[in-house]
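To fix ideas, we now present one chain and its tokenised fold:
***
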Amino acid sequence: MTLIPLHAIASVLGLLLLSVALFRLLRADPVLRTRRLAALAGCLMMAPFALGCTIYPHYRTEVKPGLLVDYPALAAAFESKEHLAAMGVCCVLGGAGALLSTDPPGLRAARSMLGAGWLLCMCSAVIGVAVTWGPSLMALVAGP
């Protein structure tokens, strides 16, 4: 399916942009440019989420049955990945919205939400890589 590489690329780009925005927010007072960067990261994190929603029917019918039989733990992890991604995107968008505030409590909330969103999305990405490459690595380790 051709959307899977786009899903992975958009995820990596979104996480990189979110990492830069979060780093800048944590080390200095946020300026307008950093706020825009965080807002852009929030919007960019919607792209892999939307692509994932588009890919899911193919996964459910073509990939999941084989994973459930051969690697049930990976199949369960993948289901958790979807939930982590949804929560992460909500946190990132909420954090980007909280950056509209200029008072210190609003900025603290934005940092917390963006940090939680980054952590959730990063966990989702790690699980995605494990599910994608896990069966191949396990077969390689097990040998012929």
Summary: Helices lie at 3-27, 32-70, 72-98, 104-142. The first helix runs from residue 3 to 27.
